[in-house]
Amino acid sequence: MRYDLNLLPIFIALMEERSVTRAAVRLGMTQPALSNALSRLRLMLQDQLFVRERYGVQPTPVALELAPRITEALAQLDDVVLGQQAFDPKQAERLFTIAPNGYAEFVLVPAVVARLQKVAPGIRLHLTPYGNDLAETGVVSGTTALVLGRIVDPPDNLVVQHLMDEGFACAVRADHPNVGDAVTREQFETMKHVNIVPPGRMRAGLFQALAQQQLKRDVVISVTNFFAVAEMVAVTDYCATLPSLICKRLMQEPRLKILPAPVDLGSFPVEMAWHVRYRHDPAHRWLRALIGEVVTDLNA
Questions:
Q1: CB 40 within 8 A of CB 79
Q2: Which residues are CB-contacts of 72 (< 8 A; sequence separation ≥ 6)?
Q3: pLDDT of residue 16
Q4: Phi-psi region of 56 (alpha: psi -120 to 50; beta: other; left: phi over 0)
Q5: So what's the pLDDT on residue 157?
Q6: What is the pLDDT of residue 156?
Q7: CA–CA separation, 65 vs 61, rounded Å?
Q8: Helix ranges (DSSP H) in the chain
Q9: Alpha-carbon gap, residue 107 to 158, rounded angstroms
Q10: Which of 263, 260, 152, 162 is closest to 199 using CA atoms?
Q11: Are the C-beta atoms of 283 and 120 separated by less than 8 Å?
């Protein structure tokens, strides 16, 4: 029996999207064309594969068993084909979609863009937000090149690379009337605080660290991005507890001063994840290596 390999990416799209409509959009097909392809898939693999439900389709046990094998087979084919392709960053004209969380967008992305301007001026980036749901970023389906931030419970089709561990420090206004060259535990607990509530897992990490140290914090305002935190602290007597590299950036702001946290609040991981199909893609490998170099330089 001859197998139509063109049907296998359709199988994977349906498996990851769980919707005929979304899979068709992702593959640039009409919905009738995809439904026809699904019929041929069912005939080829001798199973129903996907059962219609109210909000999409659900894979059958056979489809669930086949999915990792087909994903790996397609990844190996990509490795063979893409491994033969050369990539010259100086000459390349390409758009990458990446999904940074709020921390990575503030700390890492500007440095990445600056590096790209120097070594690969034809490479463009499109940012899509990364909150709690990896699937919403597009990285699980492969439409997004990579995610940057804290990766929790990744699916099997993602490769995760640890980039660094990040700590915490405190920011107050430079002429704060009650704080000198250090923040004591008593001062920390009696001061009012600005809290950052970005989507994602970093907020939980800080809350857990404070709880473990039994350190109380009187939060009077919560904001949604790091730029707002800096301005809020600069015009009040409030304190903000922020990741260390963000505090390093804020040291350039003369209205602020950065001080160690009164206790060790530990650290949180910063990671990068991408779809298995991009493991050996020369362009993607180059971009990931560049990001790794940027992280090393930021921590130097």
A1: no
A2: 276
A3: 83
A4: left
A5: 86
A6: 85
A7: 6
A8: 7-17, 20-27, 31-45, 61-82, 102-107, 109-119, 134-137, 185-190, 202-212, 226-234, 244-250, 282-298
A9: 23
A10: 152
A11: no
- Mean pLDDT, contiguous 10-residue spans, the chain (300 residues): 79 88 86 91 91 88 88 74 71 91 92 96 92 83 89 89 94 93 93 79 69 90 87 94 92 93 91 89 92 93
Instruction: Round to whole Å and give the CA distance between 6 and 14.
Output: 14
Query: Of 254, 262, 261, 259, whose CA–CA distance to 174 is shortest?
Result: 254
Q: Which two tokens stand for residue 55?
A: 């909000």
Pick from 176, 167, 288: which is nearest to 239 by CA?
176
Residue at 286: amino acid letter? W
What token pair was written down for 68? Answer: 């990792």
Residue 140 token pair: 């699980």
Residues 6+ apart with CB under 8 A from 200: 101, 102, 130, 131, 132, 149, 150
Encoded tokens for 259: 């001080």
Structure tokens at 147: 């995610």
Question: Can you give the pLDDT at residue 147?
Answer: 96
Residue with tokens 């991408």: 274
